[in-house]
Amino acid sequence: MTTLAVRDLHVAVHSDDEHKEILRGVNLTIRSGEVHAIMGPNGTGKSTLSETIMGNPNYEVRSGDITLDGTSILDWSVDQRARAGLFLAMQYPPAIAGITNAEFIRAAVNSRRGDDDQVPVVQFLQDLDANLAKLKMPEDMADRYLNAGFSGGEKKKNEILQLLMIKPALAILDEIDSGLDIDALRIVAAGVNSMRSANFASLIITHYQRLLNYIVPDVVHVMKDGRIIESGGPELAKSLEHTGYEQLSEADNG
Ligand code: ADP
Ligand code: MG
Ligand code: MG
């Protein structure tokens, strides 16, 4: 059982002047078994929240806290957070030359499992093949350098391949649907849905309601100007499709 709690979180980007905060008091609690979605317009701080939870040092926590099962993780490295079961599918996954996809994933899987429980090579390769097939990814994707020359859609599928292999306790999926055609979207959603269990939580970030037809969230949050301004059930995503974010903010201010 894992509970991630974000408490009154204020975050600035490192290069910012003293007063410019991107996150301005975010509160969020996600428990094992739950799927949460965050929707919101561009530039509102969704990726900032994801990166901050994962421990990217470019994001400076000014105040507030992030806890895992009650323990603050603010001074934990990215590696420590990953070993504790956190996973981030980045909006813009970087390419890394010189490391193959399979090598990268195996290192991540072993890091998560710990020194006493390294995955046997044959089992790793079987698991990798099975998940490549599940995601309808060509087998040679495993032998290519990580994300090097991958198309937008291939990068997104590759993030889900990592998810299926690493089996985190809590996954943040940042715009995993951007640039996917409908077939790829279905495949990606099926991959995520196959992870759903009482021992798995996820936070799905998207602009569009469409993804949430395939991965039905338990809770939907709307983020605007660095805060969560509304939370509700899946129907909130559907109503946003009609009203849009602008109208919601007007209603909120009025
Ligand atoms: P979203 O994911 O909701 O589109 P972001 O978190 O990417 O929003 O960005 C929120 C704001 O923070 C934007 O104004 C963006 O320009 C700024 N920002 C985010 N990351 C950085 C960064 N590394 N350097 C400078 N500005 C950043
Ligand atoms: Mg964006
Ligand atoms: Mg973003």
Could you please describe the fold and organization of this structure?
- This protein has helices spanning 46-54, 78-83, 101-113, 121-134, 152-166, 182-195, 211-214, 234-253; strands spanning 3-13, 23-31, 35-39, 59-68, 71-72, 86-89, 96-100, 145-146, 170-174, 201-206, 219-224, 227-232.
- The chain has a single domain, classed as Rossmann fold.
- It contains eight helices and twelve strands.
- Helix 5 (152-166) packs parallel to helix 6 (182-195).
- The strands form three sheets. Strands 6-9-10-3-11-12 form a six-stranded mixed β-sheet, with helices on both faces.
- With 254 residues, it is an alpha/beta fold.
- Helices cover 37% and strands 28% of the residues.
- One magnesium ion binds at residues 42, 47.
- Keywords: ATP-binding, Nucleotide-binding.
- This is Fe-S cluster assembly ABC-type transport system, ATPase component.
- Residues 4-250 form the ABC transporter domain.
